[in-house]
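To whoever is on call:

I kicked off a structure prediction for a single chain this morning and the downstream step that reads the tokens threw a length-mismatch warning. I double-checked the sequence; it's 191 residues and nothing unusual in it as far as I can see. Pasting both halves so you can look.
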Amino acid sequence: RRIIVAVDIDNCLCNTTEAALSVYNEDWNDNLTVDDIKTYWIENYVKPEAKEVFYKYFLSKIMWKRAKPINIDDIQRLIDDDRFDVYFVTATAAENCAKKISFLSKHLKRINVSDKFIRTTHKERVDAGVLIDDCTDNLNANPYRINLCLAYPWNRDFSGRRFNTMKEIVDWLINNVKFDEHSWSYFIYKE
């Protein structure tokens, strides 16, 4: 049996926020960066007149043309490690699913992304032993699994395991977590 790892896509495997802000800045003559976003809800940082339409940037073709893969080599290490079963979980709009599957499929090897793709706004219900995410709401929603936070300004107050890079997260998982076949559970065996 393998350890199921659910990995968020936006900001963990794709620089979605950075790409969306790039398009927004051009359209609204602004200069927001990822470092300016101190809470998860970006809409609170854009110009007031853009607040209601900002979500559309995540659906736009131009944003997806600017989006770049991040942390792919590190997640590929988990995919290639027989102890882990990696799934991709996202709270995206339904019309973005095909774009995200296509995006990841171009960059990841030896995995059928569409078979490992989960769209849900309730990540706490995903039956995974590990969640890697940048949104503290998702990480705090299920305390019964191993929640690993990829550091961004909006999650600086997260009190759980927070890592500066995906490499640190993957190294920690590989070195510290295993499946106990006797109890059918995951556990941290060293820290």
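Update from on-call: the warning came from a stale cache, not from the record. Cleared it. Sanity check on the structure: The chain has a mean pLDDT of 92.
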